[in-house]
Amino acid sequence: MKGVSFVTDETHNRRYAQIDLNGIAKYDRDALEDLLDVILAEARKDEKSIPWESVKAELVKEGKIHLSNRSKAVSKKRA
Questions:
Q1: In this structure, are residues 38 and 58 in contact, taking their beta carbons and an 8 Å threshold?
Q2: Which domain holds residue 65?
Q3: Within the chain, how many helices (H) and strands (E) appear?
Q4: Which residue intervals of the chain are DSSP H helices?
Q5: Is 39 found in the same domain as 10?
Q6: Per-residue pLDDT of the chain (79 residues; tens, 9 = 90+)
Q7: Do 39 and 10 reside in the same domain of the chain?
Q8: E strand segments, 9-70
Q9: 28 with 56, same domain?
Q10: Is the dihedral of CA 55, 60, 33, 8 positive or negative?
Q11: 52 and 72 share a domain?
């Protein structure tokens, strides 16, 4: 496939895949995004997880989200 190349070790075993994101995005963008999601998930599988409530509280504290505005927006969408 154009846009994908492999790096091999001394014994010619494939060790790494090098992906030209622009080169393969034209084939199937959704498949590319799925592939990248899988790669990122696998790379982060051993990281400590953080509960959503803790993340949300930190975002509110930093002023990056405002819960009162969010709940109003959700209420308007439902109406």
A1: no
A2: 48-79
A3: 4, 2
A4: 21-25, 29-44, 52-61, 67-78
A5: yes
A6: 677 888 999 999 999 988 887 877 777 778 778 888 998 999 999 999 999 999 999 999 999 998 875 454 444 555 5
A7: yes
A8: 14-19
A9: no
A10: negative
A11: yes
